[in-house]
Amino acid sequence: MSDESTRDQIVNAADRLFYERGFEHTSFADIADVVGISRGNFYHHFKSKDEILNAVIEMRLAATREMLAGWEFDHPEPDERIRRFIDILSANRAPIMRHGCPVGSLCSELGRLGHPSRHEAAGLFGLFRTWLAREFVRLGRARDADRLALHLIGRSQGVAVMANAFGDEKFIRREVRALHAWLARCSQEQEKHS
Amino acid sequence: MSDESTRDQIVNAADRLFYERGFEHTSFADIADVVGISRGNFYHHFKSKDEILNAVIEMRLAATREMLAGWEFDHPEPDERIRRFIDILSANRAPIMRHGCPVGSLCSELGRLGHPSRHEAAGLFGLFRTWLAREFVRLGRARDADRLALHLIGRSQGVAVMANAFGDEKFIRREVRALHAWLARCSQEQEKHS
DNA sequence: GTCTATACTGAGATAGAC
DNA sequence: GTCTATCTCAGTATAGAC
After folding, report:
1. Which 8-state DSSP code applies to residue A41?
2. B88 and chain A: CB distance < 8 Å anywhere?
3. Based on the domain organization, do A101 and A182 belong to the same domain?
4. Torsion angle, alpha carbons of A166, A19, A79, A132, to 10
5. Which of A99, A105, A108 would best serve as a mutation to test chain B binding (most B beta carbons within 10 A)?
6. A165 and B22: CB-CB below 8 Å?
7. With contacts defined as CB-CB under 8 Å, which chain B residues touch A22?
8. Helix or strand or coil: residue A75?
9. Domain residues for B13?
10. Is residue B149 located within the same domain as residue B188?
């Protein structure tokens, strides 16, 4: 960790702070403080704040791809894989209650700012969408796979927004259970048809 | 409209700009430009930006209460009233795709800023929650009325976040249909039990 | 590659004239 | 009640020494 390049340290710190405080509300001074470098040193690594944002999005995209590959490695069955997606909500319930979903809040913020990188940020949703849709196809739901993927991501986003607004842990658990039940119904409908 | 008090004009302009650009990203200059007054004049009406925010939240709370009262006046049956809530998503699909849900995005932003008024903003959700729960009770679902209310608001929030991120109008229509179907099932389960 | 010092900007806020 | 002028401060960004 300590021999991590300064550039990587900056990106990691920015990643965390953008999540906790939002992109606009995070200043260079904040990031510099966390990393323990001077403000000036900064511009040796990134020419502007937008460049740091792009680096953070790139890193998140890479991390997400890696996570999805890990799920594929761990579970051969599509429903088990999709369950992993749903369980993000339980596994990260503490940070979600405090700061919401990192993807959802970044997309909302950049959208409102009309920021040029908003489409890249939405690509994080796109990654999950494509991956989930493929698993729903494998589940025998080829005809409405993309619809189901979007529905599931949307449900998760709703849970994150509400958990953040109300700080209600029981609500998360309840909704996660409901989503697992929903997924079970998806699988059964597939089996009925085949 | 033109003989509206300057104070009201400020609150209305702030309300719109906070929705479109977010609270932090809206400056006094922005609001002053819209209203057509000088920056200085501002402090005659509000001592700080936070005071404007509080006035905006108060106004939204009052407007929401009025809207809910209107729904109660228009429809005697609880399921018809709840349908009105779901239909907000269709009725406001254009601004939702552009800016998200005004309640959800304000709560998320104030939460991230750790702003003192974040709980007041969450009160907007609370208003819908209480109102919906009461209608679910009237629908014969006294035991899980609050659970259903939270679930419905959460679903709506998810739709808003996704519609905003992807700008997908078909998605909104599809989810609205799904929510109406869900509500119909809620009513049927009640009828079965009674 | 890292630092200090500093320029420049925009935003919140105040004072005081009209 | 509205204006102009101005203050202060934080944030982005640059220059140049080490």
Report:
1. T
2. no
3. yes
4. 120
5. A108
6. no
7. 109, 112-113
8. coil
9. 1-47
10. yes
- Residues B155, A158: C-beta atoms closer than 8 Å: yes
How is residue A171 written in tokens? 């609500």
- Tell me what pLDDT residue A189 has: 82
Say whether both B96 and B62 belong to one domain.
Answer: yes
Rounded to the nearest 10 degrees, the angle between the axes of helix B102-113 and helix A145-166 is 50
Instruction: Give the model confidence (pLDDT) of A47-77 as tens digits.
Output: 999 999 999 999 999 999 999 999 999 999 9
pLDDT of residue B193: 56
pLDDT, tens digit (0-9, with 9 covering 90-100), for B96-154: 999 999 999 999 999 999 999 999 999 999 999 999 999 999 999 999 999 999 999 99
Q: What is the CATH number of the domain that holds B35?
A: 1.10.10.60
- The whole model's pTM is what? 0.96
Q: What is the pLDDT of residues A5-48, one digit of tens each?
A: 999 999 999 999 999 999 999 999 999 999 999 999 989 999 99
Same domain, A142 and A63: yes
Amino acid in the structure at residue A126: G
Closest residue of chain A to B19, computed from CA coordinates? A112
The encoded tokens of residue A130 equal 């494509």
Same domain, A136 and A187: yes
Whole-number pLDDT of residue A1? 46
* Judgement on whether residues B7 and B102 belong to the same structural domain of the protein: no
Write down the residue that tokens 């796109």 correspond to.
A126
Give the Cα separation of B88 and B96 in Å (integer): 10
List of protein residues whose beta carbon is under 7 A from strand C: A 6, 36-41, 44-45; B 26-30, 39-40, 42-43, 47-50
